Amino acid sequence: MKKILISLAIIGVVAAIGIGATVAYFTDTETSTGNTFTAGTMNLVLTPNSDYAVSSAPLFTETNMEPGVSTAAKTLYFKNAGSIAGKVKLNVSYTGADATLNAVDVSDNNYARQLLVVSGVTDGIPVEGYWAQHIIANYGGSAAALADMAIYDTGLTGLDQYIPTVYGLMTTTMYFDDGTNPIQWNSNDTHQAAFTLKLSPVADNDYQSDGISVVLTATMAQMGASF
What we know:
Strand content: 25-35%
Strand order of the largest sheet: 1-2-9-4-5
Number of strands: 10
């Protein structure tokens, strides 16, 4: 009888502890909705129009080039129309665009060797000498490289003594940079590059009616990415 009473007493204590442990707590729950993760856009626009409407219209159309005579300067406009910052490079390529064939049909490469970029201006800064030096550096500055890719002009000094050819630009890449690091193009940033070309004064009768069609290809990449 005593053991039974002790057992009942233990059960009573445990029950009392259990009742004492049941406590109510206030709570409040809030939900955050509409969390979206959307990729930004990278959109480089090239156009000769000031409103930057998407266009692939030719920048140059020169049909009566003469040896030693420069074209009018033509400007290529760039705009980062996307939402992501990026960096830009420009490449040159070309194909044949002869008119009436003459007795001696010079090759596309030979014509490009005689097509000189006598003026290149990026955001108002002359850079044709920089382009020429970049071309020469890629080929070790050899005499053959100078003759084919960057013409030496004894009437000039420093970087400007070298004039890049379209053939030389085809072999290299032009970057928008500060001389060391690429320029960061934020959304809606605009830049421009102006070109003046000239058929070399040494282009003889073999070059009559010959020509090339030049393609300027601009590429924008995310900052930190490799081209």
